[in-house]
Write a structure and sequence with these properties.
about 350 residues; eight-stranded parallel barrel; about 30% helix
Length: about 350
């Protein structure tokens, strides 16, 4: 009998072939102008047997860039590049959402034509930015003026509109991993005293406004959101993630989104200290779990109804046919960490299939 992880699943009006999701993973292989290419199309096509693909994080505007050679969805050329990707995925029977991204303080002036990165508050993150000139120390960001924020919301709306033109099946709002929306959500990075800071209601205002905007372009059941309650990546912290994210999740319930995608734990330590089953039970829609899932843990999570969908990251880099390998218990290819970021087909589209 086929395990439920590998059986079809109805995600709103989409009929997924299985519950295994390819998690979003930055690969730094976009062409000049941050344009997706035929090589990117082949990479995603190879992985189209996933129940759903979520693309690598994709900038909503030139001001949202935070890393070299990462794709955007704010120019006509980028839309054409993504159309090539989507045609390839759909031709192979797959489904694909684009993850919409604005890096905020996790950027560098050299990536922004000399402009200072923006953030909710002028707090410099610890660590270094990835730039075309190599690693460089993060700079102190500029706190956004209140009247600038509607412009950023509009960039998300325009990106959502472009995503439809590019042929995506839906979008995921990246409100995680220490990027701009997450910087507003968590009180370690948000020290504002206007309507976008202080209370949990105020800190969630930007996310709510972004969701309102993108849902003008897409029905809510084609819009997902990603959150990372305890992830310290990109110098993030929060004084009470259980209390604060319980509130955020309760508010998301009212939207009837496609799904909520949660990174369970801390990317930096690989530890989980929160009760994610409690957060999952608080959410009334489709719950997608991510971080550290293997075959056994994924199947168990579905059996116990800890999650509805399982997003898997690194194993998908080296195993285009991951669903078949998990289903049959076949050995997995080992990923080559030296080829994770940047480069050509090596470590990108040349991993062997079972067949």
């Amino acid at each position: 009998m086929t395990h439920k992880l590998y059986a079809p699943f109805s995600l709103a009006d989409l009929k997924l072939p299985n519950r295994v999701v390819m998690a979003p993973m930055t690969r730094n292989r976009a062409a000049a102008g941050n344009v997706p290419t035929a090589m990117n199309a082949e990479y995603y096509r190879q992985r189209a047997t996933a129940g759903l693909i979520i693309t690598e994080a994709t900038q909503v505007s030139a001001d949202g860039i935070g890393y070299p050679a990462t794709p955007g969805i704010h120019s006509d050329e980028q839309v054409k590049g993504w159309r090539q990707v989507n045609d390839a995925v759909h031709g192979a029977g797959g489904h694909i959402f684009v993850q919409l991204w604005y890096c905020g303080r996790i950027s560098h002036p050299s990536l922004l034509e000399g402009k200072t990165p923006v953030a909710p508050s002028a707090i410099r993150p610890e660590g270094e930015a990835v730039t075309m000139q190599g690693m460089q120390a993060f700079v102190e960001p500029r706190a956004l003026e209140t009247d600038e924020i509607p412009g950023i919301v509009e960039q998300y709306r325009q990106a959502a509109k472009q995503a439809k033109a590019a042929g995506f099946d839906g979008i995921e709002v990246h409100a995680a991993n220490g990027y701009l929306i997450d910087q507003f959500l968590r009180d370690g990075s948000n020290k504002r005293s206007d309507q976008y800071g202080g209370s949990v209601e105020n800190r969630m205002r930007l996310l709510n406004e972004v969701l309102d905007a993108v849902c003008e372009e897409w029905p809510a059941n084609r819009v997902g959101v990603r959150l990372t309650p305890e992830n310290s990546f990109n110098s993030m912290s929060d004084s009470d993630p259980v209390k604060h994210f319980s509130y955020f999740i309760s508010q998301l319930n009212q939207r009837k989104l496609c799904y909520m995608h949660i990174l369970e734990g801390d990317m930096m330590t690989q530890k989980r200290t929160l009760d994610y089953r409690a957060l999952r039970d608080r959410y009334k829609g489709v719950y997608m779990a991510n971080q550290g899932y293997n075959k056994e843990r994924a199947e168990q999570s579905i059996d116990q109804k800890d999650a509805d969908l399982i997003a898997i990251g690194v194993p998908y880099l080296a195993n285009p046919d991951l669903v078949e390998r998990l289903k049959t218990g076949a050995e997995l290819n080992s990923p080559d960490q030296a080829t994770f970021y940047g480069g050509d087909e090596k470590g990108y589209t040349d991993y062997p299939l079972l067949s």
